[in-house]
Structure formats: C-alpha cells, structure tokens
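User: New here, please read:
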Amino acid sequence: MESTNKGLNDRLVKLKRDYLVQVPAKIDEIEETWIGLISGPMERKSCARLVSLAHVLNGSSFALGFHGIGIQARALENLFKSIDPDAGLSQHVVSLIDEALSRLKEKVNDVSDSSVLLKEAAVEAVERPILESPPQSPHGCHKIEGTGKDLPVKCDMMLYLCYEDGTEKERIYHSLRENGFDIMEFGSFSSMMKGLNSIIPAAIIIDTALCGDNMEETFRLYFPRLEKPHIVPFIYISENGDIDSRLRCVRCGGDAFFLKPVDTGSLFQKIQELTTEIKNEPYRIVIIEDQADVAEYYASILQLKGMETRVITNPLDVFGTLREFNPDLILMDVYMPDCSGNEVAKVIRQIDDYVSVPIVFLSAESDKAKQLNVMHSGGDDFLCKSGDPDHIVISVKLRAERMRMIRSYNELKDYSNLLEQRVEQRTLELQQSNERLKELNRELESMATTDTLTGIFNRLKFNAILETEVQRYLRYAHNLSIILFDVDHFKNVNDEYGHDVGDLVLIAIARLVKETIRTSDVFARWGGEEFIILLPETTIEQACLVAEKVRQAIDSNEFEEVKGVTCSFGVSQFRGGDIIKDFFKRCDDALYEAKKYGRNKVFPCSYLQNDTAGEK
C-alpha cells in the first residue's frame, strides 16, 4: 500500500511538472492566433478559436492545481468572449487583451521558478501508509509503526469493558472471554483513557451509568471534538431505551446500543460486525476528457483512493469502454471538440443498460445557469475543475457507492427500497424521531421513479405499477388498457431545431397529456420520444376515446419554434390468458399500424384482431 501510494504521488507530481512545461507552447498558440486576428480580417472562426484555447488552458490549469494560471486564463477567455466580429476591435479592447496575455506569461514565469514549482507540484499524501503485515505480538496485538514517537499497541482481540461492578458485568465478561477475547476492565472514563495510551482495543463497551447525568459533557472532557481515537468502535449499554438515551449515545460516538440485561450472543455478533474488515471491489470510474494530461491527473487522484479507472480521450469511443468496463460512474468533461459532454450524456441515457449509471460533469464553467442547463441532459452532479481534489474524490465515491447499491439489487426501484430499509432501521434505533431522514428518503424515492426531463413517471416506476394492476386484473377481472404513443418524425425535429428544442417539445407534450387524462391514469415516459398511459377500469373503446382526446390536444397545440407536431397512438386491452409481454406486443403492433397508415392516428389493436376475445 505504501509503495503504491508513493508511486501514484510521484506520478501526480510528474503530471504537474510535465503540464507546466507545455503551458508556454499553449500560450504561444493563443498569441499567434491573436496576432493573426488583429493583423488580418476579423473572422468569427478565429474569435471562436481564441475562446476555445483560453477555455482549455483555464480548465486544465485549475484541474491540475495551478490556480494562478487558471485565473489569468479565465480573465483572457472572458475578454475574447467580449469580442464582436461585426463591430471590430477597439484599441481599448486590444490593450486589455495584450495586458492579460502579459499577466498570463508573468504568472507562468513565476510558477516556473523552482521554489514555486516545488510548492505547487507537491501532492499531499491522501492516505497514511498502512503496513501490509504488521509485526505480531501475543494475543493478536501489533505495534503501530510511525514517526518515532511511542505509539500504543493495537490489539485485535482485546476489548475494553468500562462497566459498573455487578452480576451483569461478570456475565458479559465471562461470555466474551469464552468467545476468545481478552478483557481489560475499567471503573471510570479517566482510567479507560489512561489505558488508551498504551493499548488500542478492538472495541470499547461502556455502561452509560458510569457517564453520570451529564454524559455528553463527560465525553467532551475526554474527546473535545467528539472524535473517537484511532477509529475504535464504541458500544453503549443502558438501562433506558428511550429516544433521549439513544441520542446521547449517538452524540457520544456510539456505534451500537444495547439494553440491560444484554443478550451476550447479540453483543458478540455486533462486535464481530464492527471489527471485521470488509474488502469491497474497487469502484470503477470512466473518465471522458479530451485533454490527456487532465484525464490522467483525475485518474491518478482516484486511483490513490483505491478506485479503478479507464480514460477516454475521444468521446466517440465511449460505448466500447462502457461495455467492457461496466463502470459505477462516468466522470465527463462538458466542453470537448468532437461532441459536447451533454450530447454524450443524452446518447448514453438512450441505452437502457446505462440509464442508471451516474454521470458527473467536470468543467471550469462557473455560471450556475449553464451548469443546470447541462444537467438537464441526464447528469447527476456538476463539479468545477477548480475545486478541491478531495471534494471531487468524495463526490465520485458517494455517487459510485450509490450505483453499487443499485446494482446489488438489479433494478433502480430496489435502490429506493434499500434506502427505505436503511432509514427504517436507523429511525427504529432513534424511535422514528429523525424527520430529516424520512424527508431524504422521500426525495431519493422521487429521484428513482421520476423522469428527469419531463417530471412524469419513468419506465421503472410504470412497470412496478403495471405489475400491481395486472394482479388486480387476475383477481377481480377488472378492465385494464394501455396507450402507447410517440412523436411523429421526432428525429427531424432534433436535426432541424436541435436537441434542446426537442426536449422542450417533449416537456410540452407531457404537460398537455397530464392536463387531458384522468388522475387515476398512470402516465410515464417510455423512452426517447415514446410515452405510455396505463388506464385502470377502462375498456379498449374507452381508451381509444382518451387517446383521441390526447391526439387532438397535441395536434391543435402551437409549440414554440416547431410547427405541426403530431403523435401516433396504439391502444390495447389486457385479456384473459395474457402475460405482460402479450399486452405490450399488441399495443406496439397497433402503434406500428398507426404510423404505417399515415401517422397522427389512433389505432386500436382490435383492428388487427378481436381484442375482446376471452374477456368476461
């Protein structure tokens, strides 16, 4: 571990040094383009290139930790953005840009000074080195090697029992000894603290009766910042199981809580759970960034935290890597030359296998409105390249951890269920007093069941509701129908007006449909430009009337920028002997016929065959 971290640190330092060597050439390219612009015709292409070159330098400098260079590059980028090719260049603007270029060069020269270079290129150790095989002593103890100071001995099979004398203490003591633990007994917090100076136990068991009425003040006396030393689990045992008692233990660093008399079997199981190290498979992170040095930098800091990475410098190669690597998270630059990050995100979100993979955007863009606009393409978070690397690592780790939970339960809906179980478990321990946890769970459940673009149900939520309605049909033989529809020639809308306008069309259609259908109907985005409506207690004839009403509402609506938006509809009714696949197949066939016969039509599958056959 120590040699691996040192190698990664050395690589980070080298990346920063190599990048700094390349910066003068990047500035020369900016300056040559600038001289060409002011000495020749005012071309939009040259203006755009200047903005792009300055933006790249801005983002990469911030990303690699050269904030001084990044600030000057950002100022230069903003000046280039202010150029109006039609109005020409004033002498004042030329002077400002020349001065900004000079300041940028000066900053690079300052950083290139050896003393400053060493300071800026230094990389702090992200993790304290850990010995692979610490020298062992009797009873499962080992010395912690370090800085030369006398450090305490870590004992993996030692427990501290800080407990009032009595039969309960004796019972716990003998039970844990029978399970192989060595026990050190203490009658007070102060004596336990002295013990910590020489031996670090696997866990500490504390009787709250020893803490007195002012338990939190007692804890703060010995641990002023409410931080436990050496990450030792604290297990509290109390006479009272009320919420106040449990909260005090949580605030005093408690990892577990037991009521007297203690079930020693459960206590032993909890100690095993708290002290057994679980080694998880490293998180897999795909980094999509056209600048190889910046991509390598982010890959290195993530690897330093134990993550596995794959770098893609050409976003058009993304699908091969996604299939082969199966990432837990995608970390992607927003501004890339071949296609933008939000375009890549939209393409990724079109593939069912990658709908739930978190996408975290990276950019030097500081405009919040632009950040939010990019997020609409399917991103889950937006991180600034100028941000603290530790913040980036933590954000990536948290998102990747959530993705792992989703995969462990195979479907996104189970992610919400898992969080519900965790919240329920914690709120049970706190007697359901923490309303913030409940609120957080509701928000996450909404995220898992709602389409981020239109605000209606997503496909996963629709399928869950459909399964329930099919069970009701099988029990009560109630009528059940669906309407499947999509936007006619939607590709032409995207090609002619752009994807942003296409997104607005989908949002407007979702609004129109919600205003038209019943509150009991279930409306969801099925994928891309395709939508679906589930109609409980509804025959196919009634469903056709609803579909026609929706069709007319869309056909007669005046969409902004786009003329003549229409939709084609297929309608089907669930019938005896059906499975869900049959139900959908007939509806999909009907939609195909609606398109075949001219689009902007409602086509029930009863036109193809008797849809009421087998109905009661």
Notes: The chain has a mean pLDDT of 79. The longest strand covers residues 480-487.
